[in-house]
Amino acid sequence: MKELIQKLPKAELHLHIEGSLEPELMFKLAQKNNIAIPYKTIEEVKQAYNFTSLQSFLDIYYAGANVLITESDFFDLTWAYLLTCKAQNIVHVEIFFDPQTHTKRSISFKTVVDGITKALQKGEIELGISSFLIMCFLRHLSEAEAYETLKESLPFKEHIIAVGLDSSEVGNPPSKFQNVFEAARKEGYKIVAHAGEEGSSTYIWEALTLLHVNRIDHGIRCDEDTNLVEHLKNIQMPLTVCPLSNVKLRAIKDMRNHNILTLLRKGLLVTVNSDDPAYFGGYLNENYEAIVENLDISETELKALIGNSFKASFLSEKKKKAYLGLLS
Ligand code: HPA
Ligand code: ZN
Fold it and tell me: What is the pLDDT of residues 276-311, one digit of tens each?
């Protein structure tokens, strides 16, 4: 099945571009931009990536992102991710970025979007990888700050397909951002939100009923509520699940306990993604491999998961069909 994972074309729908910053590039940019980082060696960095919760990861992840300063830094970051996609036969990506992580440090919205977008355009032309960009609001910040960010995004609307919600989940429910998401929808953005990663299943209900999401990011805690599972199945709401992330951040104890296969068998539209691959020990194919190694999944089910990555995407129906045709 490992060969099949490598061979089949795949889409990735839950990837934080800042979370693809490998230690090697972090060191290089730190030196170039004269930014102090709290590590002397790559070994030391890897040791620091021993997380106990979402917050313990976020603290280190935001510190790492401080080395990103210029447009070319954002370009290099994105280009490195796309080269890995090419090597893993990922043909379509929908990636997140966190504008507030950068605008808070006086890096302009334009610098960030231009760097990422130029790499995505080059990736489409030279690597044949299609892509969409999703801007996330940091949920530990206020709704007023999210509004500011929404306003800043408007000149770049043609480059951004959707608005999402990430960062510290517990204590920052979707309801906190109901108004700004309504404004984003009115601007024509599609909507996604992290919900039910560490937060309870009520956060998933809120994302559905208050934010009117097109997809739920993570969503693994839906299994606490049988009515919710039934509803997610009935409306075929995509869940962008990130297995290695869930185990690394201890949302799930062990890969053998992961509920992704159970949810698939219940008829939910679950997909496999890498979240923050530089921090969680693997890119997309390694996430599929972890599933194959630890769960009793059949080849047909593996193909269904891969098919779901296209079905759950924001691609046109025509393009979805073309990709799905390659899987049968
Ligand atoms: N959850 C919430 N916020 C994040 C994550 C995540 O998994 N990765 C990067 N920001
Ligand atoms: Zn995420």
Answer: 999 999 999 999 999 999 999 999 999 999 999 999
The CATH number linked to 99 is 3.20.20.140
Separation CA 295–CA 144 (nearest Å): 43
Q: Which atom of ligand 1 is nearest to the CA of 169?
A: 2
**Residue 120 included in any domain:** yes
Q: Which domain holds residue 148?
A: 2-323
Strand order of the β-sheet with 162-166 is 10-16, 90-97, 130-138, 162-166, 190-195, 215-218, 239-241, 270-272
Q: What are phi and psi of 308, to 5 degrees?
A: -60, -30
Q: Is 187 helix (H, G, I), strand (E, B) or coil?
A: coil
Report whether residue 73 contacts ligand 1, using a CB cutoff of 6 Å: no
Residue burial 275-291, b: 16+ Cβ < 10 Å; e: rest: bbbbbbbbbbbbbbbbb
Does the CB atom of residue 275 touch ligand 1 within 6 A? Answer: yes
Residues tagged active-site: 197
193-223 pLDDT tens trace: 999 999 999 999 999 999 999 999 999 999 9
**How many domains would you assign to the chain?**
1
Give the mutation target among 55, 275, 280 for probing the ligand 1 site: most ligand atoms within 8 A of CB: 275
pTM over 0.85: yes
User: CB within 8 A of 152, min separation 6: which ones?
Assistant: 99, 103, 109
- What phi and psi, each to the nearest 5 degrees, are found at residue 132? -130, 155
